[in-house]
Write a structure and sequence with these properties.
The complex is a heterodimer. Chain A contains ten helices and 14 strands. Chain A is an alpha+beta fold. Chain A has a seven-stranded antiparallel sheet with strand order 9-8-11-12-13-14-10, covered by helices on one side. A four-stranded antiparallel sheet of chain A has the order 3-7-6-5, with no helix packed on it. Chain A has a three-stranded antiparallel sheet with strand order 2-1-4, with no helix packed on it. The longest helix of chain A is centred in the first third of the chain and has 23 residues. Chain A starts with a helix and ends in a 10-residue tail after the last helix. Chain B contains seven helices and no strands. Classes of the chains: A alpha+beta, B mainly alpha.
Chain lengths: ~350, ~160
C-alpha cells in the first residue's frame, strides 16, 4: 500500500524542460569543439560550465584518502591474506628497510593511516585506526609490488566503483589517497592533494585487487565489519544453543575469524527471503544457533541438513519480538553437511571455557 | 539515428527516471540537475552500444549512481544546506508526505527503495547498479521499508 503510494507520488517528479535544453546546448558545444567550428566566445562558455563539476568530483574523491573496495570476498582470498599476514610478520624489519626503494614508498610513508572510513559493501563507519592496525597497514602497503604505469587514460573522476575505505593524515595539511579499482582493471591511483583540494601529484600503478582487498580485510576491517550475512553477527555471540543445550560466551577475534571462514567457504547461491511480518519457521530442530545481543537481534540458525537461516528480529522497547525477517540459505551444493566442522569448533570453545552453560540452567 | 537524435530519444525515455533518482538520492535540485547533465554528456561522448533498452537503462542508472556517489563523497567534507525540494513537483499534500518521508530515510536505504519501488528494478539489477551483493540489497530494502513506514507513520499520520 505504502509502496504504491510512493510510486504514484514519485512519478509526478519529471525532468525539467530547461535541463533538457541545457544538455542539448552542452552537447552542441562538444560537437562543435570536436569539429573545430567554435569561436573564441564559445570556448569561454564551455570552460566556464565544465570544470565546476569536475572540480567538485575531484575534491570529493580527494576528501577520501586511501580508497579500497571489494564485494567478492571469497574464502580463497581470505586464506591468501592469512598466508600473506604471516609472511609479513616474519619479515617486518626487511619490509621497513626496503620500502624506500618501492614506487609507493611515498604513499606508504606519508600516509599515517590514522583514520579510515568504510563504505558499502562494507559496513559504513568513520573511525580511527589503533596503532597496531595503522602499522600493519603501512607495512602491508610497503610490502606490495607497485608497478608504475602510464595512467593518462584514467581520469580521476572516471575510476569506477571505488571508495570503500579511506585513510586520512590529519596532522598533515596534505591528504594522500590511494584509489583502488573494483572492476577487475587492477589499477591504483595515488594522489596527493593540498588543503585547498588542489592535486599536487598523481601516479598510477598496476596492482592486484584481490590481494589488496584481502589485506584490507585482514588488517583493518576484521570480519565483523562486513555486511551480514556472515560477518557482523559473530562479533557479539552472546548465547549459543547446540543440540538443545544452551551455552553463552563472547567470542574473541580468532574464533570469530574461524567461524566466518567456515561460513564463507560454503555455497550460498540458493537464497530465499521471507516476507516481512511473516513468521516462517523451519520444521526442523536447530542444530546450532548463534545469537547476538542488541535491540535488533540477529541470529544464525544452522539445521542438520545444512540449511542456514539468518534471522533479523525487530524487538520492541520491552524486548518483545515484533516481527522477524528471515533469509534462508540452502547449502545444497555440498554432499556432506558441514555440521561436523561446526561441531569441532563448538567443542573447542566449550573445552576452552569460552562457551559455558549458564549457572541457572 | 544520429547522435543528437539518440540523445533526445534517451532523454525522453529515461530523463524523468534519472532525474527522479538523482533528486531523491542527492536531495538537491542543483546537484540532481548537474548529475543528470553529466550522465547524459557521458552518454553522448561515449556513444555506447546496447543490446536492448534494458541494458541502456541500466547503463544510464549505473553512471548516474556512480556520479551521485561522487557527490556524496564531496559532501562528506563540505556541508550543504537543505532546501525545500518538492514544492515545484508535487501539489497534492499526501504525495508530498510520502516523498518527504522517503527523503528522510538514510541514503543507503533510500537508493534501493527508489530503484525497486519507484523505478521497478529487480534485486539482481539493483545489485549490479549499486555494486553490492543481492543479500545486501535485500537487507537494505527490508530495513528501508521499515524505516520509511516508521517515519511516515510517526511524522505524517
Amino acid at each position: 500500500m505504502l509502496n504504491k503510494k510512493l510510486k504514484n507520488a514519485a512519478d509526478k517528479i519529471t525532468m525539467p524542460e530547461s535541463l533538457k535544453i541545457r544538455i542539448l546546448r552542452e552537447c552542441e558545444k562538444i560537437s562543435a569543439a570536436e569539429n573545430n567550428e567554435y569561436e573564441d566566445s564559445q570556448v569561454f562558455v564551455v570552460e566556464k560550465a565544465k570544470p565546476r563539476y569536475i572540480r567538485r568530483i575531484i575534491s570529493g574523491i580527494a576528501a577520501c584518502a586511501v580508497l579500497v573496495g571489494g564485494i567478492g570476498l571469497a574464502g580463497k582470498s581470505l586464506r591468501n591474506s592469512a598466508e600473506q599476514f604471516s609472511e609479513i610478520s616474519d619479515k617486518e624489519v626487511s619490509i621497513d628497510k626496503s620500502a624506500d626503494t618501492k614506487p609507493m614508498s611515498d604513499a606508504a610513508g606519508i600516509l599515517s593511516f590514522s583514520g579510515f572510513r568504510t563504505c558499502p559493501p562494507y559496513k559504513e563507519s568513520d573511525d580511527l585506526l589503533d596503532e597496531t592496525k595503522s602499522e600493519n597497514m603501512k607495512k602491508f602497503f610497503g610490502s606490495l609490488d607497485w608497478e608504475e604505469i602510464d595512467g593518462t587514460e584514467y581520469e580521476v573522476f572516471q575510476l569506477p566503483k571505488v571508495d570503500c575505505i579511506s585513510f586520512s593524515a590529519p596532522e598533515d595539511e596534505r591528504e594522500c589517497s590511494v584509489t583502488i579499482s573494483m572492476d577487475g582493471s587492477n589499477i591504483a591511483q595515488y594522489t596527493e592533494v593540498s588543503a585547498e583540494t588542489d592535486i599536487l601529484s598523481s601516479k598510477y600503478y598496476r596492482i592486484d585487487e584481490e590481494e589488496i582487498r584481502g589485506g584490507i580485510i585482514m588488517y583493518i576491517l576484521d570480519y565483523y565489519n562486513m555486511y551480514p550475512p556472515f560477518g557482523s553477527i559473530f562479533k557479539k555471540t552472546e548465547t549459543l544453543y547446540c543440540e538443545s543445550e544452551m551455552y553463552s560466551g563472547w567470542l574473541d577475534f580468532e574464533d570469530i575469524t574461524t567461524l566466518s571462514k567456515l561460513f564463507l567457504g560454503w555455497d550460498w547461491s540458493n537464497e530465499e527471503i521471507a516476507e516481512d511480518f511473516l513468521y516462517v519457521e523451519s520444521g526442523q530442530e536447530a542444530f546450532v544457533e548463534f545469537r547476538s545481543s542488541g535491540t535488533q537481534a540477529e541470529v544464525y540458525v544452522v539445521y542438520p541438513d545444512g540449511t542456514v537461516e539468518w534471522q533479523e528480529m525487530i524487538l520492541s522497547d520491552i524486548g518483545v519480538c515484533e516481527r522477524k525477517v528471515i533469509h534462508r540459505y540452502h547449502n545444497v551444493s555440498r554432499e556432506e553437511v558441514p555440521v561436523s566442522s561446526l561441531c569441532m569448533l563448538i567443542d573447542k570453545l566449550i573445552s576452552e571455557n569460552i562457551l559455558n552453560k549458564p549457572t541457572n540452567s | 539515428m544520429s547522435d543528437d537524435e539518440r540523445l533526445c530519444h534517451a532523454m525522453d525515455k529515461y530523463g524523468d527516471m534519472l532525474f527522479r533518482y538523482c533528486l531523491i538520492s542527492l536531495r538537491s535540485h542543483a546537484d540532481a540537475e548537474d548529475t543528470v547533465q553529466e550522465t547524459f554528456l557521458t552518454y553522448y561522448k561515449k556513444a555506447p552500444k546496447f543490446s536492448d533498452g534494458g541494458h541502456e537503462k541500466a547503463w544510464l542508472l549505473t553512471v548516474a549512481a556512480n556520479k551521485c556517489r561522487d557527490v556524496h563523497r564531496f559532501r562528506k567534507r563540505h556541508m550543504t544546506e537543505s532546501e525545500e525540494l518538492l514544492k515545484d513537483y508535487v501539489a497534492k499534500e499526501e504525495d508530498k508526505r510520502i516523498l518527504e518521508a522517503l527523503l528522510e530515510v538514510p541514503e543507503k536505504f533510500r537508493q534501493p527503495l527508489s530503484l525497486h519501488y519507484i523505478e521497478g528494478f529487480k534485486v539482481s539489477e539493483i545489485s549490479d547498479i549499486m555494486n553490492i551483493s543481492q543479500s545486501a540489497v535485500k537487507m537494505r530494502l527490508s530495513k528501508g521499508r521499515k524505516l520509511l513506514e516508521e517515519i511516515y507513520r510517526k511524522e505524517f499520520i
